[in-house]
Specification:
Elements: H1 2-18, H2 23-39, H3 54-69, H4 73-79, H5 85-97, H6 118-121, H7 124-127
């Protein structure tokens, strides 16, 4: 539990130092990364082989955001200071710089530029059928 608290403190410090994005956005980013690793079947491979590309992470962020927030995804992101895919790239590289996330030599901030248009990607009327909740048993 102390490790979790220390981790959250470190993430908060990164968020405060940068000032552009809410700390909840950074914590969401970690959850979206976990989601992406599981979705790409990399959960069972050794840590050094779990690399996720910027494009794959953006797909995972979209999926996980829509699963968590549904039609409010874009509003939640805006509240956190996130308005385009490059914002996620800045967050990732802030975490890399703080040694809270790693990258490969090929990874660069440009991987996150123009990934998708938020208005189109999070258009709930077009996407809601993909994210219908399953009925409880």
């Amino acid at each position: 539990m102390a490790d979790d608290e220390q981790f959250v403190d470190q993430v908060e410090a990164v968020a405060e130092a940068d000032g552009r994005y809410h700390k909840a956005a950074y914590l969401f980013l970690y959850e979206a990364l976990r989601h992406t690793v599981e979705r790409t079947a990399k959960a069972e491979v050794p840590r050094d082989q779990k690399h996720v590309s910027g494009r794959d992470l953006l797909r995972g962020i979209s999926e996980y955001g829509l699963e968590q927030f549904g039609p409010l995804t874009r509003s939640v992101f805006a509240h956190w200071g996130i308005h385009q895919t490059s914002d996620f790239g800045h967050m990732v590289f802030n975490l890399v710089e703080a040694r809270l996330m790693s990258k490969s030599p090929q990874d660069c901030i440009e991987d996150f530029l123009g990934g998708y248009d938020f208005a189109e990607e999070f258009a709930w009327k077009k996407r809601k059928a993909q994210f219908r909740r399953q009925p409880a048993n």
